[in-house]
C-alpha cells in the first residue's frame, strides 16, 4: 500500500489513523492535507479533516516501508543529500507545526538520546543541531546533522524564505532555501490643525509632532534556536514648515495679529501642544445713557425728629416738593464702546448702547441736557429700562373743609386739604392726597398715597390703581392687542393661501375682509373696542397720556364707524405697537407707592396698594386691606384686616366677643402685641381661632402647613 | 370672468358658478342672482369651478346665502375646492352660514 486517505476530527487524528493503518511512523510518510477541519454550529456545516498519506522512499518518493528504508546519511559535508530526505519531512512538519514539539521531533529524529549524555562541546552541538546566526543584518544558517536550526522573529522583523514572507513567529529553517531578513523604519507624520475660538478672538495651532523610528537588526552569534533582536531609535520628525501653516492660515484668512514667536515655537515643538498663534481684540462695551437725578423724588416714610429732638407722629410722611426752575435731573448720553477685531481682522462691534428715552409729562422741560421743572409741584418719575417718565404733579391746596360748599374735588395731581372732609363728599386725585383733619362719610380715591392726619369715620379710602380706570383698561388693552395680532396673523395666512385673491385690496382695502373676520372669528373684538373707547372717554381726566385718546379715536374710526378710508396691514401693526406701549405704560405703575396712613378708623373701608399705617388708638369695625405691610399701633376691634406682606397689630379682638378677622398669605406672618380670645387668624388657607389670650404673638405657617403660634 | 347658469326643477334650482368670485361679481350677484333665486324652496350652488375668491367675493357669497335664507330658501353649497375651502375655514365662513350649508 503506497498511500492512504484518512479522516479525523483533527489533522493529527487523521494522520494518526493513517500511520496506524500503514504501520509506519509519521516521518516516513508524505502528508497531504486534503481538507482542513471546520467547526460548525451543532454540527451543521462542520467538516472533518481529510489527509492523504504517501509512503516515502529515500528520494522523497513513496516506495518502501519503514523497516526497508536506509538510515539517513550522517555525512555533514553533503548536506544537500541529507536535506533531500529531510526536506519533505520538513514540509510535513510545517503543515501542523504548532502541534509539533521541536525537541521531541529531534529525539525521534536522532533516535540516539545517548548522544546527549556524552556532554558534547558547543561546536559539536551546533554541528548536530544546526546553527543560525546574524551577520551584517543577514540571516545565515547551517543545518545540523540531527536537527535543523530554529529562529524566532519579532513582529517588527520580516523573514522571507525564497522571497516569500513567513507568517509564523517561530520558524524552522531548511538548508536549501534562501532567507532574507528585513526591518522597516516607522515614520509618523506631524499632525497639526488650526482652530478658532468661539469669539473669533484667538487662533490656536494644535501640533502633534511626528517621529521616526530607525530600526537595525542586531548581529547574533550562532545558535540552534535564535531569537532575532533589533535596535530601535526614536527621533522627533518634524515635517511641517512655517510656510505650510501660513498657507493654511491664509486660507482661513488669519492674516494679521499673528504671533510669530509662538508660530516659530510651534514648528519646533517636540511635544504635543497647543499654541495661540493669532489674537484678536475683544470689543469694550460702552454704557447706556442714563438720567442723573438731582432731586429727591420718593416719599419718605418713617418718623422724623425735629430740631428739639421731638418726634411728631403725625408727620411720618414727607412729600418732596420742587420749585419752578429746579433742575430735576441731567441726561447723560450713551457712551459708545470701542470696536475690537477678530483673528480674521473683521471688526467686532461693541454691544449697542441706547440713550435714555425721556417721556416728559406736565411741568417738565428739557433744556440742553437738563430736565427742569417749569411748574411747582411734586416730581413724579417712573423708570423702566431705558424709558424714563418725568412729570411734575401739580398740587391743589384746598384751604378749609371739603363740604357741599366747596363741592367734590377731582384733580390731576396732588391734593392737600387743610380742613375736614364732610359727609357725602368725594375726592379723587391722580397723585397723593393729604387731609389735615378728619374725613367722615366720604370717598377718597388716589393713585398715589393718602395721608389723613385726623380720623377716618364711615368712609372709603382707596390708594393705588384699584378701582381706577387704569386697572380696567389694562385688561382690555392686553386683550385688544392679542386680537389685533391674531387678525394680522390670519390676514397674512390668507394672503398666502392658494385659493385667495387680493385683487380687491387695491380698491377697498381690508374692510371687506375685516368685516367677515368680525362676524365670527373675532366676534368679541367689537364689544371690546367699544368698551375701550368708552372707558377712555370716561377716564379722560385720569389718563395723562394723549396716546390713550389717540388710540381710542383710531379704533373707533377703523372698527366702529363705517369708514371708507382703505385699511392696510400697516395700520394694524401700528395699532398693535401702540397698544403695546400703552400696556407698558400701565405696568410702570408702582403700587407700593400707594401708601395710606391715618389716625383712628371707625366703620370704614380702606384699600391701600402699598403699606397701611393706622397710628391712632383704634381701628373699629372696619375692613382694611393692604398690598404691602400693615401696621396698627393701637387696637383692632372687630372687622377684617388683610395684608399681602404681613401685619403688626398692637392689640386685637374685643372683650365683647365681636369677631376680629386677620388674614395674610401663607408666606407672611401675623404679629400681635396682645391678642384677645376670639381673634380669628387666617394664614393662607389655614384658619385658627384663639381660645385664650396671647401676648407677643407671632403666627405663621410651618413646613407642615399648620399655623404655629410663638 | 365670472358666469353662472341656473337649472331649475320645479321648486328647486341648481346654480353653477364658474370663474373667480371676486369684487367684479358685485352687480351680477346683487342685481341678478339674488332676485332670480328668490322664490325657490331650495337652491344648490355648485362651487367646483370657482378657483379663487377674494374678500369682497366672500362678502357677496355671505350676502347671497343670507338674503336667500331670510326669504325662506334653503341654500346648499356644493363641491367647494380644497384651496377655496381653506380660505373659508380660515375666516370661519362655515360657522357663519352653518356647517350644514356646505355639502360634499
From TrEMBL, chain A:
Q: Where is the composition biased (Basic and acidic residues)?
A: 61-80
Q: Which InterPro entries match?
A: FapA (IPR005646), FapA_b_solenoid (IPR046865), FapA_N (IPR046866), Jag_N_dom_sf (IPR038247), KhpB_N (IPR032782)
In this chain the RNA-binding protein KhpB N-terminal domain maps to: 5-56
Family matches, as Gene3D superfamilies: probable RNA-binding protein from clostridium symbiosum atcc 14940
Chain segments carrying region Disordered: 61-82
Q: What's in the keyword line of the UniProt record?
A: Cell projection, Cilium, Flagellum
* Protein name listed in UniProt: Flagellar assembly protein A
Origin species: Jeotgalibacillus terrae
* Source lineage: Bacteria, Bacillati, Bacillota, Bacilli, Bacillales
From TrEMBL, chain B:
Among CDD domains, the record links this protein to: STAS_anti-anti-sigma_factors
Extract the SUPFAM superfamilies matched here: SpoIIaa-like (SSF52091)
User: Where is the STAS domain positioned along the sequence?
Assistant: 2-104
Taken from the record, one Pfam family name reads: STAS
* InterPro entries, sorted: Anti-sigma_ant (IPR003658), STAS_dom (IPR002645), STAS_dom_sf (IPR036513)
> Which family is it part of?
Belongs to the anti-sigma-factor antagonist family.
Please identify the protein, giving its name as recorded.
Answer: Anti-sigma factor antagonist
Q: What is the lineage of its organism?
A: Bacteria, Bacillati, Bacillota, Bacilli, Bacillales
Amino acid at each position: 500500500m503506497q498511500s492512504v486517505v484518512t479522516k479525523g476530527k483533527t489533522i493529527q487524528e487523521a494522520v494518526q489513523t493513517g500511520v496506524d493503518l500503514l504501520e509506519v511512523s509519521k516521518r516516513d510518510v508524505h502528508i497531504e492535507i486534503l481538507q482542513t477541519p471546520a467547526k460548525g454550529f451543532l454540527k451543521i456545516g462542520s467538516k472533518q479533516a481529510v489527509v492523504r498519506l504517501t509512503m516515502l522512499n529515500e528520494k522523497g518518493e513513496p516506495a518502501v516501508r519503514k523497516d526497508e528504508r536506509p538510515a539517513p546519511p550522517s555525512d555533514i559535508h553533503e548536506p544537500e543529500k541529507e536535506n533531500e530526505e529531510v526536506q519533505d519531512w520538513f514540509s510535513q512538519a510545517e503543515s501542523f507545526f504548532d502541534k509539533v514539539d521541536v525537541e521531541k521531533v529531534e529525539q525521534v529524529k536522532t533516535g540516539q538520546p545517548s548522544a546527549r549524555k556524552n556532554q558534547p562541546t558547543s561546536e559539536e552541538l551546533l554541528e548536530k543541531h544546526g546553527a543560525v546566526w546574524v551577520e551584517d543584518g543577514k540571516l545565515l544558517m547551517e543545518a545540523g546533522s540531527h536537527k535543523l536550526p530554529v529562529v524566532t522573529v519579532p513582529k517588527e522583523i520580516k523573514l522571507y524564505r525564497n522571497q516569500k514572507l513567513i507568517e509564523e513567529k517561530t520558524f524552522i529553517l531548511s538548508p536549501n532555501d534562501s532567507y532574507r531578513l528585513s526591518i522597516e523604519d516607522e515614520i509618523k507624520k506631524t499632525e497639526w490643525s488650526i482652530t478658532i475660538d468661539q469669539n473669533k478672538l484667538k487662533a490656536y495651532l494644535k501640533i502633534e509632532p511626528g517621529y521616526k523610528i530607525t530600526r537595525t537588526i542586531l548581529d547574533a552569534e550562532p545558535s540552534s534556536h535564535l531569537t532575532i533582536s533589533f535596535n530601535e531609535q526614536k527621533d522627533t520628525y518634524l515635517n511641517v514648515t512655517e510656510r505650510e501653516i501660513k498657507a493654511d492660515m491664509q486660507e482661513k484668512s488669519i492674516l494679521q495679529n499673528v504671533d510669530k514667536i509662538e508660530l516659530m515655537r510651534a514648528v519646533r515643538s517636540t511635544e504635543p501642544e497647543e499654541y495661540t498663534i493669532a489674537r484678536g481684540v475683544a470689543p469694550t462695551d460702552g454704557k447706556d445713557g442714563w438720567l442723573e437725578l438731582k432731586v429727591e423724588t420718593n416719599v419718605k416714610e418713617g418718623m422724623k425728629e425735629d430740631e428739639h429732638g421731638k418726634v411728631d407722629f403725625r408727620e411720618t410722611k414727607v412729600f418732596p416738593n420742587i420749585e419752578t426752575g429746579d433742575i430735576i435731573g441731567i441726561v447723560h448720553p450713551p457712551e459708545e464702546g470701542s470696536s475690537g477685531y477678530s483673528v480674521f481682522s473683521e471688526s467686532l462691534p461693541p454691544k449697542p448702547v441706547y440713550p435714555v428715552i425721556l417721556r416728559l409729562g406736565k411741568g417738565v422741560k428739557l433744556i440742553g441736557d437738563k430736565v427742569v421743572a417749569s411748574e411747582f409741584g411734586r416730581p413724579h418719575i417712573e423708570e423702566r429700562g431705558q424709558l424714563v417718565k418725568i412729570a411734575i404733579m401739580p398740587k391743589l391746596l384746598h384751604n378749609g373743609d371739603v363740604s357741599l360748599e366747596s363741592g367734590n374735588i377731582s384733580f390731576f395731581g396732588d391734593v392737600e386739604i387743610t380742613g375736614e372732609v364732610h359727609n357725602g363728599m368725594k375726592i379723587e386725585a391722580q397723585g397723593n392726597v393729604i387731609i389735615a383733619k378728619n374725613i367722615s362719610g366720604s370717598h377718597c380715591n388716589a393713585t398715589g398715597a393718602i395721608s389723613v392726619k385726623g380720623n377716618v369715620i364711615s368712609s372709603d379710602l382707596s390708594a393705588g390703581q384699584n378701582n381706577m380706570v387704569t386697572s380696567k383698561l389694562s385688561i382690555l388693552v392686553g386683550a385688544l392687542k392679542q386680537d389685533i395680532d391674531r387678525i394680522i396673523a390670519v390676514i397674512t395666512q390668507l394672503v398666502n393661501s392658494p385659493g385667495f385673491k387680493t385683487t380687491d385690496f387695491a380698491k377697498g382695502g381690508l374692510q371687506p375682509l375685516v368685516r367677515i373676520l368680525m362676524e365670527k372669528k373675532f366676534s368679541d373684538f367689537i364689544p371690546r373696542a367699544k368698551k375701550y373707547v368708552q372707558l377712555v372717554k370716561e377716564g379722560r381726566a385720569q389718563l395723562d397720556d394723549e396716546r390713550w385718546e389717540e388710540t381710542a379715536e383710531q379704533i373707533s374710526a377703523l372698527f366702529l364707524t363705517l369708514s371708507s378710508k382703505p385699511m392696510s396691514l400697516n395700520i394694524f401693526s401700528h395699532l398693535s405697537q401702540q397698544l403695546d406701549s400703552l400696556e407698558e405704560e400701565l405696568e410702570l405703575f408702582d403700587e407700593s407707592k400707594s401708601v395710606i396712613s391715618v389716625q383712628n378708623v371707625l366703620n370704614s373701608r380702606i384699600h391701600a396698594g402699598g403699606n397701611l399705617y393706622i397710628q391712632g388708638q383704634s381701628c373699629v369695625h372696619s375692613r382694611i386691606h393692604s398690598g404691602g405691610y400693615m401696621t396698627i399701633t393701637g387696637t383692632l376691634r372687630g372687622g377684617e384686616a388683610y395684608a399681602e406682606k404681613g401685619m403688626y397689630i398692637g392689640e386685637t379682638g374685643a372683650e365683647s366677643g365681636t369677631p376680629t378677622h386677620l388674614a395674610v398669605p401663607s408666606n407672611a406672618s401675623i404679629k400681635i402685641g396682645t391678642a384677645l380670645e376670639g381673634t380669628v387668624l387666617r394664614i393662607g388657607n389655614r384658619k385658627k381661632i384663639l381660645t385664650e389670650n396671647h401676648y407677643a404673638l407671632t403666627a405663621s405657617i410651618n413646613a407642615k402647613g399648620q399655623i404655629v403660634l410663638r | 370672468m365670472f358666469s353662472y347658469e341656473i337649472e331649475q326643477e320645479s321648486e328647486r334650482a341648481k346654480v353653477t358658478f364658474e370663474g373667480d368670485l371676486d369684487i367684479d361679481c358685485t352687480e351680477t350677484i346683487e342685481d341678478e342672482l339674488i332676485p332670480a333665486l328668490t322664490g325657490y324652496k331650495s337652491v344648490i350652488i355648485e362651487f367646483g369651478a370657482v378657483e379663487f375668491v377674494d374678500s369682497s367675493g366672500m362678502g357677496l357669497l355671505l350676502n347671497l346665502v343670507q338674503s336667500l335664507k331670510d326669504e325662506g330658501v334653503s341654500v346648499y353649497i356644493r363641491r367647494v375646492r380644497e384651496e377655496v375651502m381653506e380660505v373659508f375655514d380660515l375666516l370661519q365662513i362655515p360657522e357663519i352660514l352653518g356647517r350644514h350649508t356646505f355639502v360634499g
